[in-house]
Amino acid sequence: MSVPTLERPASDIEPTAAAGKPPRARKSRNPSARQMTWNAWLFLLVPGVLFVVFMALPIVMALVISFTDYAIVGDFEWLGLDNYFQIAVDPFFWIALRNTAYYTILYVPAGLIVALGSALLLNRRHRAVRLFRTLFYIPVVASTVATATIWFWMLNPQNGLLNVVLGWFGIDGPAWLYESQWAMIAIVMMSVWAGFGANMIIFLGGLQGVPNDLYEAARLDGANAWQQFRYVTLPSLTRTTFLVSTLLIIGAFQVFDQAYVLTKGGPGNSTVTMVYYIYNKGFGALEMGYASALSFVLFLIILVFSLLNARLTNRRNV
User: Fold this and answer.
1) What DSSP assignment string belongs to 120-162?
2) Alpha-helix runs per DSSP H in the chain
């Protein structure tokens, strides 16, 4: 006895199958490669325009102005390389460069030590660690004027907090901001305190990337805490140290706010930095051409020191 078969109604048969044609492929909802490319260029367009308008174009204009005697008001005259030749014989330029180099020599090592030390102390699991990380980072986001106001009170020679603490140990504190030999040191202390939080975060990221297996192997070999730091931690943080030191060098040569707010370049021009001198020439004396030339000289100095830092770091890696 044969089993009857059920036939599908004609309405249920797909038209393409009934006609003997292959079924149509459904359109993919995923964007095509061309659409993704256009979207990428669209997202890059806005920051690209902002970079050209606010970075590239002003740099080109400043380079052109550095060859003139442009003074904002009035006509300007093309001077060629006269501004750059004048820099070589400008005594105030060498004073500003010397002060900036002195600041850099003090600030960069101190910033590295304080940031790395803080990161080592906070690289652990504890409830209070997050609180201290936040507290140490607050000076980074605080305004320079507010920070300078706090330090101006702390460095007061009569009743400042720092001199009061030194008096507990029988030490007569100096007039920090009113003596040439101490004014730059005071600015360095403020700068280190105000900026070490950001570098601490960078070092924390580097420390958390060091494998624990290395420390376990060092402990099995009998290494103490100092030896683990010297032979495991420091070599593992080479690239991080290079990044932080480069940022510190660039920031040191561009120091301005601290000297402007605390000392106004004094006493006796002991805290006149390169950027402060450029500011005085450009907006004080209205010598925009000469100030632009000073800016490009400062750029070359920063570039040279950054390359030297990279060279020294690469040698240590070998």
Assistant:
1) HHH-S--HHHHHHHHHHHHHHHS-HHHHHHHHHHHT-TTT-HH
2) 15-18, 33-51, 57-65, 82-88, 91-122, 127-141, 144-154, 161-168, 180-207, 212-220, 225-228, 234-236, 238-253, 257-262, 274-279, 288-317
17: left (phi over 0), alpha (psi -120 to 50) or beta: alpha
pLDDT tens for 184-199 read 999 999 999 999 999 9
pLDDT in tens, 75-100: 788 988 999 999 999 999 999 999 99
Both tokens of 138, joined, read 């607050």
CB 211 within 8 A of CB 289: no
Residue with tokens 């060859």: 67
Low-confidence ranges of the chain (pLDDT < 70): 1-31, 315-318
Rounded distance between C-alpha atoms, residue 185 and residue 192, angstroms:
11
pTM value is: 0.83
Q: What is the pLDDT of residue 316?
A: 61
How many CB atoms neighbour CB 306 within 10 A? 16
